Amino acid sequence: MWASTHNESLKEKMSAVVSALSACQKEIGSGYLSAFPTEQFDRLEALIPVWAPYYTIHKILAGLLDQYTYADNAEALRMTTWMVEYFYNRVQNVIKKYSIERHWQTLNEEAGGMNDVLYKLFCITQDPKHLMLAHLFDKPCFLGLLALQADDISGFHSNTHIPIVIGSQMRYEVTGDQLHKTISMFFMDIVNSSHTYATGGTSVGEFWSDPKRLASNLDSNTEESCTTYNMLKVSRHLFRWTKEIAYADYYERSLTNGVLGIQRGTEPGVMIYLLPLAPGSSKERSYHHWGTPSDSFWCCYGTGIESFSKLGDSIYFEEEGKYPGVYIIQYISSRLDWKSGQIVVNQKVDPVVSWDPYLRVTLTFSSKGSGLTTSLNLRIPTWTSSNGAKATLNGQDLPLPSPGNFLSVTKTWSSDDKLTIQLPLTLRTEAIQDDRPEYASIQAILYGPYVLAGHSIGDWDITESATSLSDWITPIPASYNSQLITFTQEYGNTKFVLTNSNQSITMEKFPKSGTDAALHATFRLILNDSSGSEFSSLNDFIGKSVMLEPFDSPGMLVIQHETDDELVVTDSFIAQGSSVFHLVAGLDGGDRTVSLESETYKGCFVYTAVNLQSSESTKLGCISESTEAGFNNAASFVIEKGLSEYHPISFVAKGANRNFLLAPLLSLRDESYTVYFDFQS
């Protein structure tokens, strides 16, 4: 984070942490540094069960080495080499006392990226001990399988072994050993083709299961966040070596769907361990649930915090050559001070929305006056279409390559230059990685790189009756957010909201935002005529005839039940005139209240119990001489802005039994959702 921001407060804090750890290391006196004693390693080497001590050692080493690499902290490098000296001697003693096999057996306990950090350290020190120790952490029983190109990773603990592949990639970079380049490419191929969800994530219950059997894995324990963090590293290396679009596409998909959605909205330090993908899942109901900023220290908290600190590390890639080049593989608003190119590149990305299906990017430049010719290479992702794609330089059209290639522009850039690109965002479905015919109908829905989740407590049936996705998946217009409301009442010291409770309308206690209860307490007011669709204030609805559509049940309406006075939710196609209400000033005479009068039964109003409690049914009651005292208050509601709102990327999908409200998986907090749908023809 400091390397991206150069924030002085961050530098003071991180320097203080290094100093404090240095004092601890000096006090211990052996080079060892950890919050747990060395007896943990005695147990590990004796093959007595112990919880992953090398995993933590790797994190400490990696953090210290980053302090040197990014912030030039020489003390951190000294601490790192002293720690490594301790473990070099320790591993040598294990091999001498037992055998090298015993050391490899210790690697069956999760060891993190020990080989990775040791190869990086060797690049700095050129100490052969560091290279030797790195080799000793290249787990042969796993890398050997990949070297033989055996598609047999099932049963391996995912996050134990992905870091070993990352270390193998560093071995290739350090030694030039082509075998380790081949290993990582093969590994990425089998994970991507047989073990990856539409989100880009992998694993179930932290392990890899049988290849192409993911339909059996859709539960609350899918996609450990650490594995996504580490697979991004694998793909980053592969892109640097090959410049293949597939690796850049993978990075975008995993970052968008597997990283940005593991934090609860914009609440810092509130993260999840696993991203559940079962029908009717919720991040809040995932394993460990949401963590807390100060009391949760799972492995996925460390990687999660780091992921959000380095969102900018794979937007731009630099290439040397006759003309210095930059590859832009992520479209994220950002600024690049390209020193070797002697220009500043400013990237501005327009917000993505569902009702205007294009990704629009504008690049402007600040020249440092060198007259240097450089090349910009812009990724044309595989998810886009040539139809409607466009690029311009200073208003002049540029020839665009087909999706899956780079648009390359070489010139001497000036401060007057402006490069724009417009890429169509296409809706598509993607079958789950499962080769059993009975699961061929299970598919995810994507919009460009975004995985769309449907608000659902478990239903997932979609009838695919049209030839084009746009025939049964339609965007939600921007104007709809101005039509979202919540009706509230207060009784005593408790605030209640009108709620869709399993297709019955009840009053419930005021909910927390980002929850199913907040969704169920939000309704869209639909005008019963065509006199406009966007309103500047909620008061604009007063005096209008309206229908109430539950937020997460598009196409359904609130009506009076046929056999009694209770309000229920039913399909708009079968709803009769009793679904229309006249929104009038509150019967209680309050300044901010409204009442809902039935258009069909004049003088009859939606009302709640006089002595209001949770789960009370709402009814349609008519004013008469026998109307109970307090009816006017019970029929009056405060109309407020909806507790929920449509994400800018929202759609309605026609289901077999109901319609689904779709939104990006990354945008959901505690709400129930379904990612994979069962498409029945």
Task: Describe the SSE topology.
Blueprint: H1 2-5, H2 8-28, H3 39-45, H4 53-71, H5 74-97, H6 100-106, H7 114-125, H8 128-136, H9 140-147, H10 158-175, H11 178-194, H12 225-242, H13 245-259, H14 299-309, E1 316-319, E2 325-328, E3 334-338, E4 343-349, E5 358-367, E6 373-380, E7 390-393, E8 396-397, E9 405-412, E10 418-424, E11 427-431, E12 442-447, E13 450-455, E14 461-463, E15 473-475, E16 484-491, E17 494-501, E18 504-509, H15 516-520, E19 523-527, E20 545-550, E21 556-560, E22 567-571, E23 581-585, E24 593-598, E25 604-607, E26 616-617, E27 619-622, H16 631-634, E28 637-641, E29 651-654, E30 659-664, E31 673-674, E32 676-680
Parallel strand pairs: 2-6, 14-32
Antiparallel strand pairs: 1-2, 3-4, 4-5, 5-10, 6-9, 7-8, 7-10, 11-12, 12-13, 12-32, 13-30, 13-31, 15-29, 16-17, 16-19, 16-28, 17-18, 18-26, 19-20, 20-23, 21-22, 23-24, 24-28, 25-27, 29-30
Helix pairs in contact: 4-5, 4-7, 5-6, 7-8, 7-10, 10-11, 10-12, 11-12, 12-13
